């Protein structure tokens, strides 16, 4: 059974991914010529997914596997789940066996994908606005600040942290919603779970959560 801390963090994750899905799927008003490469990655992904979502919303709502497949195809290539997993486990990553690391990465990835896919259906007519880009692209590590503009609510701050891998590809490794880091939030939660029952208990908790989402 998933403990209370994992369950509460899952609720935060769902809220965060709803906002992230809005940022990925919202319409982008800026012209491509005004954006740098990491911003263009977000813009391109948003346009691809938004087109499918608007065209097949009813179909996707009835068959979540198709949503999972869409996220796997369009969104996942831009995320580094192995890096996110290492950061989320913190020092506990070094204590885990290779098999446990592999299992954790897969369960954490499934949790994010399935929650993210479900959050897609929350999209209405939000607009994504890129804020001024101030980082140095040559550093290989940047933040892409954005605002999700909603008609009936205040703007929401969304920040994607990306790094350039050895193949020259920009990958997302953290998401911050209103300044709250997804990775940092889960690092604390996972550390508590490991202290109480070990990493195997954490992996089992994530697996159970994924099964419930799938069903």
TrEMBL record:
User: Which domain of life does the protein's organism represent?
Assistant: Bacteria
Query: Which InterPro entries does UniProt cross-reference here?
Result: MlaC/ttg2D
* Signal peptide residue numbers: 1-26
Q: Does the keyword Signal apply?
A: yes
Tagged with keyword Signal: yes
Keyword annotations from UniProtKB, A to Z: Signal
Against PANTHER family, the record matches this protein to: INTERMEMBRANE PHOSPHOLIPID TRANSPORT SYSTEM BINDING PROTEIN MLAC (PTHR36573:SF1)
In Swiss-Prot or TrEMBL terms, this protein is called Toluene tolerance protein
Per the UniProt entry, what species is this protein from, by scientific name?
Answer: Methylophaga lonarensis MPL
């Amino acid at each position: 059974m998933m403990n209370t801390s994992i369950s509460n963090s899952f609720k935060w994750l769902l809220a965060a991914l709803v906002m992230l899905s809005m940022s990925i799927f919202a319409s982008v008003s800026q012209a491509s010529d005004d954006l740098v490469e990491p911003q263009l990655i977000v813009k391109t992904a948003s346009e691809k997914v938004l087109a499918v979502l608007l065209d097949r919303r009813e179909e996707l709502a009835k068959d979540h596997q198709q949503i999972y497949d869409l996220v796997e195809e369009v969104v996942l290539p831009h995320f580094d789940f192995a890096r996110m997993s290492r950061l989320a486990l913190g020092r506990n990553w070094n204590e885990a066996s290779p098999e446990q690391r592999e299992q954790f990465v897969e369960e954490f990835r499934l949790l994010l994908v399935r929650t993210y896919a479900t959050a897609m259906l929350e999209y209405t007519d939000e607009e994504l606005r890129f804020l001024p880009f101030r980082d140095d692209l040559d550093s290989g590590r940047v933040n892409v600040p954005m605002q999700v503009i909603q008609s009936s609510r205040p703007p929401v701050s969304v920040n994607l942290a990306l790094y350039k891998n050895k193949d020259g590809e920009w990958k997302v490794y953290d998401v911050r919603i209103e300044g709250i880091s997804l990775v940092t939030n889960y690092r604390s939660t996972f550390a508590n779970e490991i202290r109480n029952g070990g990493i195997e208990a954490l992996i089992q908790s994530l697996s159970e959560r994924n099964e419930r989402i799938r069903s």
